[in-house]
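Lab channel / #folding
Pinned by the channel admin:
"Please post every new chain as: sequence first, then the structure tokens as a reply. Keep commentary short and put observations after the output so the thread stays searchable."

First post following the new format, from NK:
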Amino acid sequence: MSEDVTRKGLQFIESINEFCGYKRKWLIKHDEPTDPRYGFLPPERPLEKYIEYGVINLDKPPGPTSHEVVAWIKRMFGIERAGHGGTLEPSQLAE
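Reply from TO:
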């Protein structure tokens, strides 16, 4: 089973490499047994887990406040806790 997890994980990493144009090959020095109770490979992770533990990378348009956008996200996903790091305000263009 561990070999299957390693193979799937390596395929996922290689698909990201291909998308990014990264050419380096990955070397597995030691294959360690993995228990599926401790997580998911990204392409197999259920949507509920992304919502529970995820991060939303948001390009906030001018207009709504950061507080409003967080409230919308909480309402859209039906979650009680959400917040933002830093500012969601658009950067000012240099004049």
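NK: The chain has a mean pLDDT of 78.
TO: also worth noting, The first helix runs from residue 2 to 20.
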